[in-house]
Specification:
alpha+beta; 4-stranded antiparallel beta sheet; 20% strand; Reverse transcriptase domain-containing protein
Length: 175
């Protein structure tokens, strides 16, 4: 049998970033081993069964590499954070952004997000969370009160492109 690949609508990144108007500080939150926090149903566990020369087993929790893991994880995050969408926080998979206009605003928004995550029994990796920064990296971009700009890794990747040396390479690169 074959697993049907499910697709969950991903947020439009441009719309996502346009909602940052007026933000002066940013909090980014990252879930600790995001997929591994999601228990598998009994029927899903059976589909992860494996055999080694000395034993057999099956996964109890969602792992990277499962065909529909991104779909199921996106559905979970939508269910947990949807009431906060657009007004309090935005997210892409396990990366959560909380833009704020002031410290009291940040604390209020952060409390709402943390309560939602706690209610779903989802935990954060504190070493990858940044609270109330004037500039943060998020989804490959640098966000600040001044706006959005490409992150350093994106800039380095473009600079590392090989220079075209003939008209065919120029056409392939630019048209």
């Amino acid at each position: 049998s074959q697993t049907l690949r499910k697709v969950f609508p991903t947020p439009n990144l441009d719309e996502h970033l346009e909602r940052l108007q007026g933000a002066k500080m940013f909090t980014t939150l990252d879930l600790a081993s995001g997929y591994l926090q999601v228990p598998l149903s009994e029927s899903a566990k059976e589909k992860t069964a494996f055999i080694t020369p000395s034993e057999s087993g099956q996964f109890e929790r969602m792992v990277f590499g499962l065909v529909n893991a991104p779909y199921e994880f996106s559905r979970l995050m939508q269910r947990v954070l949807h009431p906060l969408k657009d007004k309090v926080a935005m997210w892409y998979l396990d990366d959560i952004l909380v833009p704020s206009t002031s410290i009291p605003d940040m604390l209020n928004r952060l409390q709402q997000v943390l309560e939602a995550l706690k209610g779903a029994k989802l935990t954060l990796k504190l070493s990858k969370c940044y609270f109330g920064y004037p500039e943060v990296a998020y989804l490959g971009f640098m966000l600040s009160e001044k706006g959005v700009r490409p992150g350093d890794q994106k800039i380095m990747a473009v600079k590392a492109f090989p220079k075209p040396v003939n008209k065919h390479e120029v056409r392939r690169c630019c048209f």
